[in-house]
Amino acid sequence: MTKKPYYITTPIYYPSAKLHIGNTYTTVAADALARFKRLRGYDVMLLTGTDEHGQKIQRIAEEKGVTPKEYVDEIVAGIKDLWKLMDISYDRFIRTTDDYHEKAVQDIFTKLYEQGDIYKSSYEGWYCTPCESFWTETQLVDGKCPDCGRPVEKAKEEAYFFKMSKYAPKLIEYIESHPDFIQPESRKNEMLNNFLRPGLQDLCVSRTTFNWGIPVKFDPKHVVYVWIDALTNYITAMGYGNDKYNDYNKYWPCDVHLIGKDILRFHTIYWPIMLMALGEPLPKHVFGHGWLLVDGGKMSKSKGNVVDPVVLVNNFGVDPVRYYLLREIPFGSDGLFNNEIFIKKINSDLANDLGNLVSRTAAMIGKYFDGVIPAPTDKEEIDDELIKLALDTPNQVDKAMDAFKIPEALDSIWNLIGRSNKYIDETTPWILAKSEDKKGRLGTVLYNLVESLRIISSLVASFLPTTSSKINEQLNIELTTWDSLSAFDGTRAGTMVKKGDAIFPRIDVDAKLAELDAIREQQMKESSAGDAKAEIKPIKPEITIDDFDKLDLRVVKVKECEPIKGAKKLLKLKVDLGGEERQVVSGIAQWYKPEDLVGKYVVLLANLKPVKLRGELSQGMILAAASEDESKLFAVTIPGDLPTGSTVS
Ligand code: ME8
């Protein structure tokens, strides 16, 4: 029988040097869903990847003196390592720099242009000249560039736009007639009421101010801007518009896009509209999970509260981290990550509840049956209760996972764990063991416990894969298929248990918290040392003496200096260059009053092509040295009376 396909996607990640615990959340959740659907017998495709283009990457690479591709290659390798560490069982990894994706994006863009959904116009926004970046009003921080903090100017740029408005009514109708398309429900209403119903603006889909992107095929001075490049990964990775893969018809439309709430608008408005324009079916579900917060709010480097998944995994193992994310954070709402709650949860839920159940069961089989799993011989009412719950739990988990209720699925499993521990207390095997005629009963109790643990372990495997393997090894569990969970007889009596170490050793909360604090402090120190270094701009590429020789630097004397009306930053200087008078406009008004400069000998780049600034001719440039944050600036002066026109070399 061919298996039914089930296609899950995670967002594709920006190549950032350090992913925090919040970034790993989506992918851990997607992995649990994928593993569970595999257990259910689906042919699962779990897609993840990286979103590698854009100006920011280009700039970081330039600062580091490497090509953008070299930069992202290194980061992507790190992201793949992180997914390995987090036990992510992805089936395919797409990079937006993959050739097949780039070609498909170019063709998609051309098709949308040719059919009239994309048109050329101009983009107006706030422009930061040093960063060569456009920003929207809302992106500005205190009216300044959010990247470098410098002033911005209103500017216009030629750009292509996508006619979003054309498809809005059709999308509203679709969302209304597919009530489970956007989940959770509250997010659906937010999309409809805050964005769609008030009217959609057309989306800017190209840029000309940087070139680290996919060139528009018919107008290559433009690169495709962010969302057409990023969102289409979900279909190109299946083979849409390329020959690399041939799985499009099998897997598309996907069963679910799992994403964080911050990118829900792009996935439930822009992406469905792009698909409508392409004539392709829409995803079955888009689930927007909440935000992972830390004490004091959002994680941020400056607050020093960024939770590093690598530190957690190295200290506690991967499964406790997965457990906390999947059980403790309500899937769909914001949730808190807190070290103390995390460690206490490990002690209570993992070490006490699950760990003890396994070790007590294995120890009693060791003690009373020489490690051989006994066969059941009888059945009492108290057994029925456990058996009924054990057989019902897989269905409860299935139902919860179908509704993307991951914490509820774990609640059901822990309910069975709790019931099994209670069963030990109720049946008191240590008392049964005292009388020879209760040996049969004791055998039944222990068999039932192993069998219950077999079901628990099979279900836990989707969430905590390593833990499940450890349980299976200790209790010699073989049957873990979905079908084997519908009968309470999968354990083979007569097999040996292998008592091992506690699967979750108890943790000393205070000692571990102190250790984690020390690690964080150390990381803060290292990162601020890194930042201090980063403040010094890297040295520009090497030049020859001939290159330098092209600059004509001269000593000039400032004869007159005055502000320019309406230009707060500029001063107009009249300088003497060996008998020749020149006018120079200089952006140093913030640091010098006009009278401070008159009479000074300064250095002029004399052969710079003249330009007009604010309508005033500037014939050269005064040299100045500035601190990186531009809080301090000094014009380069000559401390003596060299004849004007003398060369500087
Ligand atoms: O958004 N809590 O990539 P990304 C929970 N490239 N989730 C968080 C989080 C937090 N504190 N911080 C980040 C992008 N995330 C785009 C996606 S898809 C076509 C393009 C989540 O690397 C965030 O919501 O910035 C998103 O789901 C994921 O991390 C990747 O974010």
TrEMBL record:
A motif ('HIGH' region) lies at residues 13-23. The keyword Protein biosynthesis applies. It catalyses: tRNA(Met) + L-methionine + ATP = L-methionyl-tRNA(Met) + AMP + diphosphate. Gene3D superfamilies: 2.170.220.10, HUPs, Isoleucyl-tRNA Synthetase, Domain 1, Nucleic acid-binding proteins. A motif ('KMSKS' region) lies at residues 298-302. It is found in: Cytoplasm. This is Methionine--tRNA ligase. It comes from Clostridium oryzae.
